[in-house]
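Notes from hallway chat w/ T.B., transcribed later so I don't forget. T.B. wanted the structure written out for a chain they're using in a teaching module, and asked if we could keep both sequence and structure tokens in one place. Agreed to drop them here.
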Amino acid sequence: AFKLLNKVAAVFRGAVYYSEGKIKLTCDKPADPVYLFNRSNVTAEGFSYEGTDVKTRSNCVIVRFFNNISQQIDYVQHPLASSLSTDPFVKNYGLTKRQVDAFGCTSAGQASRLARFIYYAENFLTETCSFVTASDAGVMLTPGMVISISDPVRSGTRLAGRITAVSANRTQITVDSITGINYASGDKLSVILGNGTMETKDVDGISGNVVTVSSAFSSAININSVWLYEKTTVEPTTWRVLSIQQGENLEYAVTAITYNSSLYNTIEGGTDVEAKDITQLDEKVDAPSTLTVNE
């Protein structure tokens, strides 16, 4: 029965999971991040990243479906055979074919979207992130949620932490440390509100450890809640939660797969996949000058 439910859910790019004594559904669709993580609300081990083997990434997808017009089994392929020789993934890694049966699919258009989805997902969503968090964050997560992660190991700078004070009008947030962050127009501040939801505001300025936002947050913010500072030059990474497992000492092990919201427009409309700037470690350093050598 569970396999059948998964097949039915796959028709709308969904998945079935068991939680709170119930069978629940989640759908892979565009979504904004609803929670945030940084080194302050995960265990000392931090974040662990793992990529997929290039040999397992399908760069030629064939979908088998029942054509309702011809009343026969039919096939669609992405990329087309005429485009395989110029496909960048085929050229770089060799041809890796995959054939799938599209359950409940009766049109070539739907089958083609499925082929494109598998092709782009396997070649662009190639990384998973694992971490362990406490119960206050773990109980808020469910499979399918999109989360933001600020990891200084990847970004090259600390852009998140804990909140130490909040002004009465909820426009001035005092954080544990703002060292290394300089305000620029377009910066944003995200916090976890007292009700467990995430909210983002434009930043108006920074003074000491106090971040001033353009308008008040919608509800109360608890002291020691988490914050995340987003710059136009260094954005947080986004991930879709795959699984949450409760462990010992009320800790939760979370596994998530990389998430790119632009991928949906690429699959449906053929637009380019957009890449976010998530690190400053790739910035070029000026060449040394006026060097002297002494023997």
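Follow-up for T.B.: The first helix runs from residue 2 to 10. Might be a good example for the class.
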